[in-house]
Amino acid sequence: MIMSEAPPDFSSLARRYLDLWQEQVAAMANEPALAEALARGIAAMTEGANAFVHAASAGAAPASEVQVPDAPSASARTPNVPPGSSAPGAAPAAAASAGPCHDPDGLTRRLAALEERVAALESQAGGEGGGVEGKPRRRRTRRVEMF
Asked: What segments bear the compositional bias annotation Basic residues (predicted)?
């Protein structure tokens, strides 16, 4: 752009852009095959969004409350099993064991043991956790070789 030229009129450019956009949309709407393809595409996107919402809400619900569409009922899957008895197959999984995070007394004991170990290490080093005396170490620079 030469400095003597006037800057572009952005209002005029925006108006031209919208006019062209409206012409393109009107032309597409007048073509039946394209209009139908666009309608099918929008319907597919809507179905996909609905499926996502359904899956997301099912993931938030407890497994016992999830409704799977078109899934056979438990009695249809195992027709020869009398009501009240268990279905054949693997046994259900056992409940999760209580991990160490569910034992606050054990955690307290482990922390106390760690504190004792740190105190022993500090006393062997001859200090009260003060820090290292002397000059600070110089930082190493890493050499990067190209090719």
From this structure: 136-147
